[in-house]
Design brief:
The protein is of the alpha/beta class. It folds into 2 domains: 128 residues, Rossmann fold; 67 residues, no CATH class. Helix content is 26%, strand content 20%. Strand 9 and strand 10 form a beta hairpin. The chain starts with 10 loop residues before the first strand and ends with a strand.
Length: 245
């Protein structure tokens, strides 16, 4: 029997000209996304020869002795150094090493078709990256170029940028969720709330189990639930727990 195809993990590339602040942006953005419950993977694209291990360390000695792959394992994390005969594509990297992430953010890959957020600093470069096209989602800049037709965030608007990325992540999951696979989307007070796979499964199963016990519900394809607390001044309309089979 053919295994079920998993929904594709959303990937966004942070791009920009040299020294524009891509890594600094990621350092500020990642805690915001983690605080929203997302599991985040990152990929740093490096075009030069790979060197990460420390000369003289045991893992370095393993590698120098001829190991094709070396894993450093500890109770709090693992590290992997392995040879490759080519520059692996983003999809392959995500599938092999980041397949439990809710969102993957790359630093680099500006020449790919990945959705992009450009970091632009006018004081360093008179113009942003050339060739901006429909893959550009947004820009981060204190002085954006004139007639910019995509959303722009100031460098200190990491919270707003995180909200923007959460909305993009939810949209991408909805678009790439394969037929026959349930998808769940939650909003609270009009703001999307990211759900990791465990939380989404728990919520989906609980709601579907409750509805299954109600007369006349049959096998619903889409379930919408709205809950209003207090005096009704704060409400959530159309929380969409969609495509439950």
């Amino acid at each position: 029997m053919q295994a079920k195809r998993m929904a594709r993990i959303p990937v966004v590339a942070v791009v920009g000209l040299p020294d524009c602040g891509k890594t600094t942006l990621l350092e500020q953005l990642l805690p915001e996304l983690k605080g929203r419950g997302l599991r985040i993977g990152t990929i740093k694209h490096h075009v030069h020869e790979f060197a990460m291990d420390t000369p003289g360390k045991d893992t370095w000695r393993h590698k120098q002795a001829g190991a094709d792959a070396v894993v450093l394992a500890s109770p709090t994390g693992i590290g992997l150094v392995r040879d490759t005969d080519r520059d692996l594509g983003v999809d392959e990297l995500v599938t092999r090493y980041l397949n439990d992430a809710d969102l993957v953010i790359t630093e680099g890959y500006k020449h790919t078709r990945l959705p992009k957020i450009e970091v632009y600093r006018r004081e360093l470069h008179p113009t942003p990256l050339p060739g901006r096209n429909t893959t550009w989602l947004a820009m981060v800049s204190a002085e954006p170029p004139d007639n910019l037709e995509i959303p722009c965030f100031a460098p200190d608007q990491t919270r707003e940028l995180a909200d923007f990325l959460v909305q993009h992540q939810q949209k991408m999951l909805a678009q790439t969720s394969p037929t026959g696979r349930s998808y769940i989307h939650l909003e609270v007070d009009g703001q999307p709330v990211p759900l990791n796979r465990f939380a989404a499964s728990l919520l989906r199963r609980g709601i579907k189990g409750m509805i299954a016990s109600l007369r006349g519900c049959g096998r619903p394809r889409k379930i919408a639930l709205s809950i209003t607390e207090g005096d009704g001044n704060s409400s959530q309309n159309g929380d969409d727990f969609g495509h439950a089979d």
